[in-house]
Input
Amino acid sequence: MSKEAFMEDLAAILEVEPTELHMDYGLDRDNWNSLTIVTAIVLIDEQFGINIEGDKLRQCYSVGGLWQLIQNGLESGG
Amino acid sequence: MNCQATIKAIASYLPPTKLTNEQLGQEFPNWDIEKTFQNTGVAIRSIAERNECTSDLGVLAAEKLFTQIGCRPEDIDFLLFCTQTSDYFLPSSACVIQDRLGLRTSCGAIDINLGCSGFVYGLSLAKGLIETDLAENILLIVGDTLSKVINDQDRSARSLFSDGASATLISGVEADEMKIGPFVFGTDGRGARNLIIPAGGLRIPLTSETAIAKDDGSGNIRTSQNLFMDGAEIFNFTLRTVPTAVRQLLEKCRMALEEVDFFVFHQANKFMLEALRRKIKIPREKFSINLEFYGNTSSATIPMALEVALSQGQIQPGAKVLVAGFGVGYSWAAAMIRID
Output
């Protein structure tokens, strides 16, 4: 699954335009809450077939950090 | 012909006091209740009265069942009561219910301490008792009153959970074909801390400290005497476990997914159910979503959804129905059933 497709779906979860989303885009208590995190869990499962621990997701502070977690998950086989 | 355990009837009881999305919206004005509804699928929850326990709801469900099918209390020779919100540490609520319902004193009665997977485990125990000739008519009552253990300021949990109980009569019939089963079971206690009421048992007794309310960082407030759920980890567990359990069950049944007539999963929340449905590739029309007027009633969601699907004709007599319960423990179980 491409990074572009993921970013597009993540933008929908965060309710921003895909063009607004970049690697430094901040994740905070307002946009990165229990609801958006579980939605992201499903998205990551559907697009990449991996599960990332809830604690790691909660401690993610930028889109770039989230993307790195996915890469780490893919490298370790999910 | 062999003696096969089969589901004879199901009846449920929801307490009349309701908690609507509008009421929750008034209590939490900064909360997007419409978006929450889209995700949970819950519009109305039922709330037990202050002095009303799960056993009371269970008794009402069982009395409804008896009236519905003309069964008499003395016909029951085994009672299985599944709850995680018991009346007492001891005795078992099943013993209290035996007396309340007027079941005979030669009736066996035990509690099963499970949540979302409890109904499927209850079916497996009932099948075992009947098909080994230990009992003839089993009353399986499942339910919870989680509203009593959820903090008033925990909006996430309050938006999901509902109180209720369901009663199922399981009896033996002479038949060639298996009516309940095969089963697959699963347990992973590493997930115990992710859905828990930490204090109030003997491990962490109630103290003034366990009564201190704390914000969990996402605006939900609770004490360690309240229900805690790590939603993210529960999602991970479910996405990892349920599709595998369904695949294992189909292999055991030597059936293809397409041969199953209807699927009733534990009604956790709509978003999770839709994610599972897509992942397992179940057609929408074969998949129960029964949350709007029921909420998540823990172990009672599957029989309640079965009852609704039967009454609405989504399940036709003799249909092959795959039921799957999963959650607190972690504990899960799936089974193939036929309801004639």
